[in-house]
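Hi U.,

Before I forget, here's the chain from the pilot set. I'm dumping it here mostly so it's searchable later in email.
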Amino acid sequence: MNVAKDGLIIWNARTGEADKVLTILTDEGLVTAYARGCLRPNGRLTSATTMLSFSNFELASGKNMFTVVNAESQQKFLSIYGDAVSYALATYFCEVIRLLMPSGEETKEYLNIMMNMLHLLNTKAKPQWQIKAVFELTMMTLSGYMPNVSACSSCGSEQSSSVFFDYFTGSWYCSDCSARKGVPADIPFSAIRAVQYVITSEPRRAMAFDLKPPAREAFCYIAERFLLTHIEHDVQTLNYYNALIST
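Structure:
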């Protein structure tokens, strides 16, 4: 019996002259599906099985994976396709999802976050630095790695002019405690406040802030390095994105 699923294509691999294997993010988890003939020009599956397409799939169960019987595109992010930097950032989001996705659990929140971030990228409603950092912090929090940034981890002080951030524990130390530990308090406190705001806000409010340099750069660095510290994985799509924005 065939099943119907709505989902976002977050990975694909060519397996033949006109075929691909798809990884589809649904609200029930990741689905692997074989799409026969989807690389043929003007094929009936071609449009709905491209990377970052949100589509309705009719799937037939197989021994090792599903087979796509039919697919209809529900939403595309056309502006992302036309911008190399935006597309690189979107594929980085996809790789993070694949690395952090829990097995055997409902994943509706992951899908909702991903769709929201793609919408923001597509419409350019928020700057890319903010979309990227909020995505990273939100994903880490959702996956059980919420930073502990409410107060200094040593003395309990709730503010400081600058702090030291521990990327392994996700906690910070005020300038006085940092000096006693012999570590540099080189993070502006406003960057820590931004982290706290993002991880404690409802998703629809998580972007309602702004930061000026140098706090902006510190905030972005915290979000990226905190994620990389905990996934312990070389993320090639992030390397490519960073190479693009540095040129």
